[in-house]
Specification:
255 residues, alpha/beta, TIM Barrel, globular, binds nickel (II) ion
Length: 255
């Protein structure tokens, strides 16, 4: 299994990192992608991926972090994109849940477009954070990506109808712990209609811990609970989910 989105660079894991890596391995998780959030955090991601073979990085600025982002963020992102173990631009996108202000929305859009351009220049896939901004996200992605690079909709939270539109564009949908929640009915419907060759696994650790560990701190070791839920919903075997999602990740990312 591959956890395509886990913030294990966060300080939550600092004094138990070796234990965390051991648990990840024991759980059958071969690779973990650590997405960037703010430029201040990039160095730590780089040092982790240089130290550990099974860890890879994405570099990008998160839409909710723009209010006090460094003015030279673009240079900081660009400089790291040719690192051998930086395999995506992310997480980038739009978040209208935390920011309701129109001016901030416009800034988010500009920054997203710039980062899509950087990804295209470096021929890297993008990890998209889309929270309550489906329509704007869709418009920007379909216009600016234009089929040139793979798109991963991280923590996909749209309706089945929105999923259909994304799938028609050839984008991948990534699912995490929320899928295991009883009340995640809409998301389970989305999984049902999404072909297995378009699905990726993730945890978004330390957040959104799957059942049966809901409420505890999340870990990439728990990604199997997401895979099990997908198997249940699609009435296929766990092995098939494991194999297909791993194959998908290898198609998108140059590990
Ligand atoms: Ni995230």
């Amino acid at each position: 299994m591959i956890d395509t989105h886990a913030h294990i660079d966060f300080e939550n894991y600092d004094n138990k990192f070796d234990l965390l890596l051991k648990e990840i391995k024991l759980a059958g998780v071969d690779k973990v992608i650590i997405p960037g959030v703010i430029p201040k955090g990039f160095n730590k991601i780089i040092s982790l991926i240089e130290k550990y073979d099974n860890l890879y990085g994405a570099i990008g600025v998160h839409p909710s972090e723009l209010k006090d982002v460094e003015t030279d963020w673009e240079v900081k992102v660009e400089n790291l994109l040719n690192h051998q173990k930086v395999i995506a631009v992310g997480e980038i996108g739009l978040d209208y849940y935390w920011d309701k202000d129109e001016e901030i929305h416009n800034l988010q859009k500009q920054v997203l477009i710039k980062q899509i351009e950087l990804a295209k220049m470096n021929n890297l896939p993008i990890l998209i954070h889309d929270r309550e901004a489906h329509q704007d996200c869709f418009e920007i992605l379909s216009e600016h990506v234009n089929g040139k690079i793979p798109v991963v909709m991280h923590c996909f939270s749209g309706s089945p109808e929105f999923a259909e539109r994304c799938l028609k564009q050839g984008w991948y949908l990534a699912f995490g712990g929320v899928l295991t929640f009883k009340n995640a009915k809409k998301m389970k419907e989305v999984v049902k209609i999404t072909p297995i060759d378009k699905i990726l696994l993730e945890t978004d650790s330390p957040y959104l811990t799957p059942v049966p560990h809901r409420g505890e701190e999340n870990s990439p070791a728990y990604v199997k609970f997401v895979a099990e839920e997908i198997a249940r919903i699609k009435e296929i075997s766990f092995e098939e989910v494991n194999k297909s999602t791993t194959d998908n990740a290898f198609k998108i990312f140059k590990f």
